TrEMBL record:
<dbReference type="InterPro" id="IPR020084">
    <property type="entry name" value="NUDIX_hydrolase_CS"/>
</dbReference>
<dbReference type="GO" id="GO:0019693">
    <property type="term" value="P:ribose phosphate metabolic process"/>
</dbReference>
<feature type="domain" description="Nudix hydrolase">
    <location>
        <begin position="50"/>
        <end position="187"/>
    </location>
</feature>
<dbReference type="GO" id="GO:0016462">
    <property type="term" value="F:pyrophosphatase activity"/>
</dbReference>
<dbReference type="InterPro" id="IPR000086">
    <property type="entry name" value="NUDIX_hydrolase_dom"/>
</dbReference>
<protein>
    <submittedName>
        <fullName>NUDIX hydrolase</fullName>
    </submittedName>
</protein>
<dbReference type="InterPro" id="IPR020476">
    <property type="entry name" value="Nudix_hydrolase"/>
</dbReference>
<dbReference type="InterPro" id="IPR015797">
    <property type="entry name" value="NUDIX_hydrolase-like_dom_sf"/>
</dbReference>
<keyword id="KW-0378">Hydrolase</keyword>
<dbReference type="Pfam" id="PF00293">
    <property type="entry name" value="NUDIX"/>
</dbReference>
<comment type="similarity">
    <text>Belongs to the Nudix hydrolase family.</text>
</comment>
<dbReference type="GO" id="GO:0006753">
    <property type="term" value="P:nucleoside phosphate metabolic process"/>
</dbReference>
Length: 201
C-alpha cells in the first residue's frame, strides 16, 4: 500500500482548494499527486479524518400532480464554457443536516418547495463524485416539489435555467445535451421505471 508522507495546501479559496500529496508508492518510489477538496484546512481533508461526510447534496425530485416530470437545471459551467444538465444541487453548510441543505438549495436554485422522502440510508449516504481528482462526496436526496419556479434567489455567479422534463424530454436531453454523469444514471431510471421511485425499494 502506498504511504503518504507530506501534504501541502496550494491555494486559498472559499469553496474548493488544491492540495499536493507526496509519498511513496507500492514499490517505494516517490509520487506527487494533486487533490482538489472542499476542505478549508489540511486537518479537514478526508485523507486525514478518514470520515466520509457529505460536502454537498443533489436532489432527485419529481414535479406535477401526477409526478410525471423531473426537476433539472441547465447550468453554465466555467470548466467547459458551456451549459450542462444537472440535478439541483449545492453545498452542505457547516453544522447543517443534509436533508435541510437539500430543501434550502432546491429553493435557492429553483424557487420550488422540496419534500424529501424517507428512504433506506444506503441510497442517500455520501458517495464520492470524481475520486481520481477530488475527495468530494455528495448525498442524493429523493422527493417531490411544488410551487412556482423563481430565479430571485440565485447568486450572482449562478447562471441557471430550471427545466421540468417529462420522459420524452429526458430522452432528448440524454441524446443531445451535455449531462452530468450522476444525473444521467437517474434519468435512465426516470425514463424506464413505470413507478419513478421503484429503484429505491
Amino acid at each position: 500500500m502506498p504511504k503518504i508522507e507530506k501534504i501541502t495546501k496550494q491555494t486559498e479559496n472559499p469553496y474548493v482548494n488544491l492540495y499536493l500529496v507526496e509519498g511513496k508508492n507500492k514499490v517505494d518510489h516517490l509520487f506527487r499527486y494533486y487533490v482538489a477538496s472542499r476542505a478549508k484546512t489540511m486537518e479537514a481533508l478526508k485523507i486525514k479524518t478518514k470520515k466520509n461526510t457529505p460536502d454537498g447534496v443533489l436532489m432527485y425530485s419529481l414535479y406535477g400532480e401526477k409526478r410525471d416530470k423531473i426537476v433539472l437545471v441547465r447550468q453554465y459551467r466555467v470548466s467547459i464554457d458551456d451549459y450542462i444538465y444537472e440535478f439541483p444541487a449545492g453545498l452542505v453548510e457547516s453544522g447543517e443536516e443534509f436533508h435541510e441543505a437539500a430543501v434550502r438549495e432546491m429553493h435557492e436554485e429553483t424557487g420550488l418547495t422540496f419534500h424529501p422522502l424517507k428512504v433506506d440510508p444506503c441510497y442517500e449516504k455520501p458517495f464520492f463524485t470524481t475520486i481520481g481528482m477530488t475527495d468530494e462526496a455528495c448525498s442524493a436526496v429523493y422527493g417531490w416539489c411544488e410551487g412556482e419556479i423563481s430565479r430571485k434567489y440565485l447568486e450572482e455567479s449562478e447562471v441557471i435555467e430550471v427545466v421540468l422534463a417529462d420522459r420524452e424530454e429526458a430522452k432528448r436531453i440524454l441524446r443531445e445535451e451535455n449531462v452530468a454523469i450522476m444525473c444521467s444514471y437517474h434519468l435512465m431510471h426516470f425514463i424506464h421505471d413505470e413507478e419513478p421511485f421503484a429503484f429505491l425499494k
